[in-house]
C-alpha cells in the first residue's frame, strides 16, 4: 500500500514501507547511478590525451584552413566563393592581430596574396574569351 494513502496512526504500514525501501536499496547499495545505467568508465576506448596548443598555433591553423579552402576555389575558378572565404580570412587576421604583431605576417598569407593577384590578372585577361556564370562574373568585377 502506498505510504501517502495509509493511516498516519498505523505503525504496521510504516514497517512495511521501511522493509520495501530496504529491499529496493539492497541490490543497489554501493553503486552509483552512472554505473546502474549501464555506463562503465572502463570501456574499451583508449583515453584521448588532451593536446595543449599555443594561441599562435591555433590562429595559424585557422588561417591555413581558410587559405586551403581559397586555393581549392582558385583551382575551380569560383570567384564568389573566393570572395567569401577571403572576407572570412580578413576577419581571422583581425582576431589574430596580437599574434601577428608579435610573430610577424605569416609567409603563407603573403603567398596567398601573390597567388590571388596572379589568378586575378589571368582571369581578367581571359574574361572575354571565357564565359562565366553571372554570380562569378559579378564577384570578379
Topology record:
Layout: H1 11-26, H2 33-36, H3 55-76, H4 79-95, H5 97-103, H6 107-125, H7 134-140
Helix pairs in contact: 3-4, 3-6, 4-7
Structural summary, described in words:
The chain is mostly helical. Helices cover 65% and strands 0% of the residues. It has helices spanning 11-26, 33-36, 55-76, 79-95, 97-103, 107-125, 134-140. Helix 3 runs parallel beside helix 6 (107-125) and helix 4 (79-95) crosses helix 7. The longest helix has 22 residues, at 55-76. 8% of the residues are buried. The mean pLDDT is 78.
Question: Can you summarize this structure?
Answer:
With 141 residues, the protein is an all-alpha fold. Helix content is 65%, strand content 0%.
Shape: elongated
Strand tally is 0
Q: Over the alpha carbons, how many angstroms does the gyration radius reach?
A: 33 Å
Beta-strand fraction estimate: under 5%
Order of helices and strands: HHHHHHH
Quote the distance from N terminus to C terminus. 82 Å
Helix tally?
A: 7
Largest sheet report: none
Q: Which bin fits the share of residues in helices?
A: 55-70%
Low-confidence stretches: none
Amino acid at each position: 500500500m502506498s505510504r501517502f494513502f495509509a493511516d498516519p496512526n498505523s505503525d504496521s504500514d510504516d514497517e512495511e514501507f521501511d522493509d520495501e525501501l530496504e529491499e529496493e536499496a539492497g541490490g543497489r547499495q554501493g553503486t552509483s547511478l552512472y554505473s546502474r545505467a549501464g555506463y562503465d568508465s572502463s570501456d574499451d576506448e583508449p583515453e584521448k590525451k588532451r593536446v595543449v596548443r599555443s594561441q599562435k598555433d591555433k590562429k595559424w591553423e585557422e588561417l591555413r584552413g581558410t587559405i586551403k579552402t581559397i586555393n581549392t576555389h582558385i583551382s575551380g575558378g569560383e570567384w564568389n566563393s573566393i570572395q567569401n572565404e577571403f572576407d572570412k580570412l580578413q576577419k581571422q587576421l583581425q582576431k589574430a592581430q596580437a599574434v601577428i604583431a608579435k610573430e610577424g605576417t605569416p609567409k603563407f598569407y603573403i603567398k596567398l596574396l601573390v597567388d590571388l593577384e596572379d589568378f586575378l590578372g589571368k582571369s581578367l585577361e581571359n574574361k572575354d574569351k571565357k564565359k562565366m556564370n553571372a554570380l562569378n562574373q559579378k564577384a570578379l568585377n
